[in-house]
Amino acid sequence: MASMLSHAFRNIPINSPWAVKLSTRSLSTTSDLRTAVQVKIPKARVNQKLNNVVLVEGVRTPFLMSGTTYANMMPHDLARASLQGLLRRTNIPKSAVDYIVYGTVIQEVKTSNIAREAALGAGFSDKTPSHTVTMACISSNQAMTTAFSLIASGQCDTVVAGGVEFMSDVPIRHSRKMRKTLLSLNRAKTVGQRLSLIGKIRPDYFAPELPAVAEFSSNEVMGHSADRLAAAFGISRVEQDEYALRSHILAKKAETEGLLKDVIPLKVPGNQTVMKDNGIRPSSMEMMSKLKPAFVKPHGTITAANASFLTDGASAVLLMSEEKALSMGYKPIAYLRDFVYVSQDPKDQLLLGPAYAIPKVLEKAGLSLDDIAAFELHEAFAAQILSNLKAMDSDWFAQNYMGRKSKVGVPPLDKLNCWGGSLSLGHPFGATGCRLVTTAAHRLIKNGGQYALVAACAAGGQGHGMIVETYPQ
Asked: Any idea what DSSP says for residue 293?
């Protein structure tokens, strides 16, 4: 339409009285319109008040080692189960949920926006917006803080955040050569063109591209990074095995005492109902010492016993504005307070996110280590968490890498991951963050204390830290 008008105007003689009159009228009308628009534009209402964001409840499916009971399911099945479990636990009407956001890392290509597919599968209205985020092992952390921002800013009152990972069935691609050939075949118009393309296929075209827990920037798998980190901080194999054994013992104790209240049962089609995690396996130092290095052979210190295992699972939390939660009769379990994200060198400091995030989030909140009653730190490897603790306890590291005059200090061990951690409970990459926050809230309720601190590292040399405050009981 615009080009037609332009063509018509170009064909009007410029000395035509009608053209002059039209031009003059157009200019004056444009000026009048601009003046009118400037006068009539109303000022947008600005919400100066940030809403308090509360955690009403959090749930998760049992975390299972990949290749076990969930093996024949799909990732959105687990995400849907976490949504349905949250609905049952809270009795929140689906219509009351304004938004849904999930985190995941290795995406199933058929359900790239897994939040949307899980929401529809769980019976939410097709009018409920849903989107998916990815930030490696802190993907559900990012989902929660995205929800936090939506609520705090007043854009939403009620948001479900969660995460899912399914390592039993990850996408395996054809080689790039084969992909290009197949795409060209799809565009070929004649039999001759197709035969010509097929004739170019060579045996190496059939070599698949397997996913790996490796850094794109350094091409180094995370286990190698953990081994180098352990060597840099002088952490022995014995120290790592002792810490890993502690994680399993504490997780088993918490499970036995019924403290892992976020776990919901999941009926697996054609199979049994899964009631609990299957990776909690307290062993002995003697048994653990017999395992061979998994990455740096033969002298590495990372083994299958002191590293988190590939895990299937999903989690979900119900976040609301405090005002909305109370108006609907809910008793929140915690406030979500300050949070930070950090990034550092993805090669030499890949897994040191907590060491950088913890002091930053404490300073932002005006708190000290002594103010924290419960610490929930992600355990990718025993070497990783012990390296973070040593970094936080080093004046040299603080001065040379963190721009601080002195060390941060370390959390007391009796406040750290007291109900087990990722080494024992499992680590579905996209789902761990919600577990950490929910566990922190339940630990405050169980053992007392006002504040908890959640922190995690992630691929790419990134990290997250958050303050959780118990809700007045």
From this structure: P
